[in-house]
Predict the structure.
Amino acid sequence: MNTNIKLLAAIFSVFILSACATNPAPPSAIGLYGDSPGKQKVNGSRAQVVASRTFSYTYDDVFEAPQEGVFKKGLEVEKADKQTGKIIGSGWLQEICGAGPCLMSSTFAIYIEQISPEPKTRFEIVLDRHGFTAWGGEQKTVNNLLIEIQKVLGTY
């Protein structure tokens, strides 16, 4: 019995480690996302999550904060267009998969829109994971990104 458990644990560990080790490099996000927020068909995506918030900050502040926030979480901004309010990028995000943390190949698009001069600015992120299929950690990952962006906004 003890030998069977050890064998199963070894097989599971090899599966998890090989899956994380073969995770492909993040593709470029340029050309993957449309001009409008919301769920999108993204080439090579294994999982997608969309999250939005309304912030009581100016458009300029909400446009700048995600660029710093995603960098702190391991992502790189590939293009930021202030006129359209769209920021796209890619990189490695840490997720919990099976026995521990894995770096997941990810791309993202952020859409920013001023909805009133109070100030009220709408923020939406579309996050895609490419490569290995984890166990649903994407929602937690995007929530952690939003928390990081809120921390940056809190310094303004």
The chain has three helices and five strands. Residues 12-19 have pLDDT under 50 and may be disordered. The helical segments are 2-21, 59-72, 138-153. The chain has one domain: 2-153.
